[in-house]
Specification:
Layout (H helix, E strand, L loop, with lengths): L3 E8 L2 E8 L4 E6 L5 E3 L5 H8 L3
Antiparallel strand pairs: 1-2, 2-3, 3-4
Amino acid sequence: MSDLKVRAYDGSGRDRLYVEALDGRVVAWLDRLTGELTVLREEYRPAVLEALAPT
């Protein structure tokens, strides 16, 4: 289990899942309309993919 949390945001024409470190820093987001994943901190990529994986 990763130490990241995922929160949904649907506003300003955006429908995204934001992935945050426990200190609140956004490390990635997934655009739910296009499926595009943006990773801001590459060292978190494996944990981001784990956090966004379907259960």
